[in-house]
Write a structure and sequence with these properties.
Blueprint (H helix, E strand, L loop, with lengths): L1 H28 L3 E5 L3 E2 L2 E2 L4 H9 L4 E7 L4 E5 L8 H5 L2 E6 L4 E7 L2 E9 L9 H4 L3 H5 L1 H7 L5 E3 L1
Parallel strand pairs: 1-9
Antiparallel strand pairs: 1-8, 2-3, 4-5, 4-6, 6-7, 7-8
Keywords: Membrane, Transmembrane, Transmembrane helix
Length: 160
């Protein structure tokens, strides 16, 4: 009887520690907000990589199934259940917006056919949140992105 009680206590303490670790991860280590990556990149999306490499990495993420291309003249939405193919719209656009199923959004900014910056809108608990920069193609905001990130107050901004 004493061993069963000790075992139950060990299991409950282990589960309690697991809950604490998850809460610390969600609330402190990766809080919701806008993340700006300009040096190394985010996960497998590396700064300086060509468009084809970024598209291949997007195709490796099963949660990304919507890709929006932004040009001064138009906005094109690409939807797929499997893989995105390289299209003229992707080649002509310097701004790609990738939407995750959990409402996170990534903006890929290209200069001279290579990735120059990644902006990630990270949500907490898969809640849908709104931001003028991430909701639609706002090339006017992207022209002076530093000023926008410094002056917007809706979400905290984290630089990497």
């Amino acid at each position: 009887m004493k061993k069963q009680r000790q075992r139950a206590l060990q299991i409950s303490l282990g589960l309690g520690m697991l809950v604490i670790v998850i809460l610390v991860e969600v609330l402190a280590i990766s809080p919701a907000g806008i993340y700006s990556y300009t040096l190394t990149g985010y996960r497998n999306f590396k700064i300086g990589a060509p468009r084809q490499r970024i598209l291949a990495e997007i195709n490796r993420v099963p949660a990304i199934r919507t890709l929006i291309t932004c040009t001064p003249d138009s906005e094109t939405t690409l939807l797929t259940q499997r893989h995105f193919t390289h299209t003229p719209e992707l080649d002509a656009s310097d701004v790609w917006i990738a939407r995750y199923r959990n409402h996170n959004v990534i903006i890929f900014l290209f200069q001279e056919q290579t990735l120059s910056r990644i902006l990630l809108l990270k949500t907490r608990f898969s809640r849908q949140i709104s931001s003028a920069l991430f909701d639609t193609c706002r090339l006017d905001l992207l022209d002076d992105i530093e000023l926008f990130l410094e002056t917007q107050t809706a979400h905290p901004v984290f630089y990497h």
